[in-house]
TrEMBL record:
InterPro entries: Calycin (IPR012674), Fatty_acid-bd (IPR000463), ILBP (IPR031259). GO terms for molecular function: lipid binding. Signal peptide: none annotated. Pfam families: Lipocalin_7. Residues 8-25 form the Cytosolic fatty-acid binding proteins domain. Coiled coil: none annotated. Belongs to the calycin superfamily. Fatty-acid binding protein (FABP) family. This is FABP6 protein.
């Protein structure tokens, strides 16, 4: 299957459900404000299955993740948390499971569309045995 060419520079255009998402993943309010309508520029360098994915934030801060499709890599979240992930290519989309959300990126009509969706988390409490 052919890999889409993701290489390029993309300027932030619009976000949907931003507040809901960043609150759910636990970003602090100062980081939420910093990211709101922030003109982030995402720069993607692609060499086959090797990617360097850099987000340039206003004020000079950057987050860079370097990864190879199908291999575990050291990654960093928007909030600066480090973790390991194996980035996959599924139906032309780049897919990565972050610590508490799934992130996909695809090209749609020349635009880079990134979607972060929360992964459902269920917790069950052990029941105490009750004597009859």
């Amino acid at each position: 299957h052919g890999n889409m060419a993701f290489a390029g520079k993309y300027e932030f255009e619009v976000d949907e459900n931003y507040d809901d998402f960043v609150t759910k993943i636990g970003l602090s309010s100062d980081k939420i404000e910093m990211g709101r309508n922030c003109k982030i520029v995402t720069e993607v360098v692609q060499n086959g299955n090797d990617f360097t994915w850099t987000q340039h934030f206003p004020g000079g801060r950057t987050t860079t993740n370097t990864f190879t499709i199908g291999k575990e890599a050291d990654m960093e979240t928007m909030g600066g948390k480090k973790f390991k992930a194996t980035v996959k290519m599924e139906d032309g989309k780049i897919v990565a499971d972050f610590p508490n959300y799934r992130h996909t990126a695809e090209l749609c009509g020349g635009k880079l569309v990134e979607v972060s969706s929360q992964i459902s988390r269920l917790a069950y409490k052990k029941q105490n045995k009750t004597k009859k």
